[in-house]
Amino acid sequence: FIDDISAIEVMDSRGNPTVKATVRLSDGTTAGAIVPSGASTGKREALELRDGGERYMGKGVLQAVENVNSQISDVLIGMSPFNQAVIDATMKELDGTQNYGNLGANAVLGVSMAVARAAAQSLGIPLYRYLGGANAMVMSTPMLNIINGGSHADNNVDFQEYMIMPVGFEDFATSLRAASEVYHNLKSILSAKGHSTSLGDEGGFAPNLSSNEEPIQVIMEAIEKAGYVPGEQIGIALDVAASEIVTDGGYRLESEGRTLGSEELVAYYENLCAKYPIVSIEDGLSEDDWDGFKLMTEKLGDKIQIVGDDLFVTNASILNEGIERGIANSILIKPNQIGSVSETMLTVRLAQRNGYTCVMSHRSGESEDAFIADFAVALNCGQIKTGSTARGERTAKYNRLLEIENEIVYSEYLGSALFT
Ligand code: PGA
Ligand code: ZN
């Protein structure tokens, strides 16, 4: 049974405080988990409880820590750690709101993850095996964000993420190697062109460029220079994070000095998809622009993966609405958008049953905790995006996946199916 639960305030990768929860079981097993934090958050995400005031520019999480140490501990101590759904439901009931508006999703998720990890450790099995059972067998194709823009960097690029997706390889280790080689070639290409090679929040480069298309052009160059075939071996994926660029007059492309309406923006994507091996576009429209998303799905849905992040916020009922209305064909999975391990699993299940692909995802504010690597394999997500091949909080996830791949024999690449 659960013997003790506690939390402390620790640092995330952007230097902001976040919650680390620790769970001790009666057999002596102790496990902790650290909660991540986004910058370009969706409006309907579960509440991230921040203290306000002057401490840490208002971003302290002492109240969330206190909620773990008192209210949450009080209800969970003595319970079995082996029934995750009951643990999570108990916290949901204690909170009493739909979005963890009382306890804070950062308090709840920290405990939820720490309980799962303690349970796995107590049984002596890896976390992915505990959460996924014998069914955990599909390695994830990585989506690596090698040029950062939008609210993740100080450069002028409007789109938030330019990712490479190594889809044409036999296994995860070879995919990661290819991505790393492209990353290094990109660095020398940017240097040679006189651009900055400093890094954004997710470990990708953050140069100033003349349009939102130019990052794709330099990435294409880097893929070829690294000796890989664009499209066949390495595809390109975008996260526009369009909720961040929407204005009253339309979608503002600052670096290009123009503002586009939904139809024009979808046409912009159609043009990019015709010119480059783009396999996936996330949040191409703003979270409120469901008509625009519908249009994009009609125009591009049979050619590429259309991912909803801010759009669906890992929320099963919002996803369900999207499924009914034929919006997008894929969902980004961020546990802290919904607040617990069990609710994340339910959303993945709903997506998979309805033919939507799932992309497990980090946040732009991360930590050394690699929970999502195990989680992606446990749920057979088939895809994971967790930044570039640089910055420890990003490589922690890739390094964990390398370990997992060594342990499980079977691997299948969903990514390659995108090209058929
Ligand atoms: P965030 O960015 O963690 O800042 O929300 C990640 C994403 O938009 O996918
Ligand atoms: Zn996103």
UniProtKB/TrEMBL annotation:
Is Magnesium among the key words of this record?
yes
Return the similarity comment.
Belongs to the enolase family.
Binding positions (substrate): H152, E161, E282, D309, S361, H362, R363, S364, K385
Q: What is this protein called?
A: Enolase
This chain's source organism reads Sulfurimonas autotrophica (strain ATCC BAA-671 / DSM 16294 / JCM 11897 / OK10)
Q: The organism sits in which domain of life?
A: Bacteria
- List residues binding Mg(2+): D239, E282, D309
Note describing how the cofactor binds:
Binds a second Mg(2+) ion via substrate during catalysis.
The UniProt keywords, alphabetically, are: Cytoplasm, Glycolysis, Lyase, Magnesium, Metal-binding, Secreted
Q: Which GO terms describe its molecular function?
A: magnesium ion binding; phosphopyruvate hydratase activity
Q: Which Gene3D superfamilies match?
A: Enolase-like C-terminal domain, Enolase-like, N-terminal domain
Required cofactor(s): Mg(2+)
Q: List its EC numbers.
A: 4.2.1.11
Where, if anywhere, are coiled coils annotated?
Answer: none
Q: Where in the cell is it found?
A: Cytoplasm; Secreted; Cell surface
Q: What is its main location?
A: cytoplasm
Q: In which pathway does it act?
A: Carbohydrate degradation; glycolysis; pyruvate from D-glyceraldehyde 3-phosphate: step 4/5
Functionally, this protein is described as follows:
Catalyzes the reversible conversion of 2-phosphoglycerate (2-PG) into phosphoenolpyruvate (PEP). It is essential for the degradation of carbohydrates via glycolysis.
| BP-aspect Gene Ontology terms | glycolytic process
What chemistry does it catalyse, as a reaction equation? (2R)-2-phosphoglycerate = phosphoenolpyruvate + H2O
Q: Which residues bind (2R)-2-phosphoglycerate?
A: Q160, K334, R363, S364, K385
Gene coding for it: eno
Looking at the record, the residues that make up the Enolase C-terminal TIM barrel domain are: 136-420
Give me the Gene Ontology terms describing cellular component.
cell surface; extracellular region; phosphopyruvate hydratase complex
Q: Looking at its record, which EC class is this enzyme?
A: lyase
